[in-house]
Amino acid sequence: MSGDAALRMGTRKSVMATTQSGRVGDRLTARTGRAVQLVGVTTFGDVSRAHLTQLGGTGVFVSELRNKLIDGEIDFAVHSLKDLPTTPDERIALAAITVRDDPRDALVSKAKFADLPAGARIGTGSPRRVSQLRMLRPDLEYVPIRGNGDTRIGKVTSGELDGVVMAAAGLGRLGRDSDISQVFEVDEVLPAPGQGALAVECLASRTDLIELLNVLDDPHTRAAVTAERSVLAALEAGCSAPVGAFASGDGHILNLTAAVVAVDGLRSVRKSTSGPSPAAMELGRDLAAAMIAEGAGTLMGEQAH
Ligand SMILES: NCc1[nH]cc(CCC(=O)O)c1CC(=O)O
Question: Pick from 29, 71, 153, 233: CA 20 to 30 A from residue 145's CA?
Answer without folding.
Answer: 233
